[in-house]
Write a structure and sequence with these properties.
alpha+beta, Jelly Rolls, 4-stranded antiparallel beta sheet, 24% strand, globular
Length: 191
């Protein structure tokens, strides 16, 4: 629970009684590698904080999975397009490793916003961070060559290249696994 509080404190200051309230709103859940936090077609009912582990966001596009994002320790995970309007999700979120999450439901998040002095500010700043990150990823996909997108992956997710199967990384970068192998080889030759 301390990790969640530390993450929230990056956005706002908390008083002792607010920390106690927040601790009571989150609950812990474990996901085995391969298990889904959110399946396609389900409604995302929680915002989660990753205590340990690694999650992958992906879309199913004509039977082909397309990885669109990764979240790891000390990051929040949620499909806000489903969570906020409480609608079915096109995105699936899957544990790539055994993962421990601290979860908060929609109604409890509303309590956090209302009863924590700067709770709504926290929500706004966290969503702004997600929004800017998504826009940057989209821009990169349309304007950057694959090698630049791969370098952005390495910079944006330090250490993940050793934890994530290469075909998921290739999907995230928007290329075939063979193309990623060539890019990695070129980078090693230059390096």
């Amino acid at each position: 629970m301390g990790s969640v509080l530390t993450a929230i404190r990056q956005y706002i200051q908390l008083e002792d009684n607010e920390e106690v309230l927040i601790a009571g709103l989150f609950h812990e859940r474990h996901f085995a590698a391969g298990e889904h936090f959110l399946a396609e077609g389900d409604v995302c009912r929680h915002v989660a904080f990753i205590e340990t582990g690694l999650m992958r966001y992906y879309l199913n596009d004509d039977g082909q999975e397309r990885t669109i994002f990764f979240s790891q320790e000390n990051e929040f995970v949620c499909n806000y397009q489903s969570f906020l309007p409480r609608s079915s999700s096109r995105v699936a979120i899957q544990a790539l490793e055994d993962t421990t999450l601290s979860l908060i439901g929609f109604d409890d998040l509303q309590i956090l916003y209302a009863r924590v002095r700067q709770g709504e500010r926290f929500g706004r700043l966290a969503i702004e961070h997600v929004f800017v990150s998504a826009l940057e990823q989209l821009r990169s996909l349309y304007t950057d060559p694959p090698e630049v997108r791969y370098r952005r992956f390495l910079d944006g997710f330090p250490g993940l290249a050793q934890r994530v199967p290469q075909y998921y990384i290739a999907s995230y970068v928007g290329i075939q696994p063979q193309s990623l192998s060539r890019i990695r080889r070129r980078m090693t030759d230059k390096g």
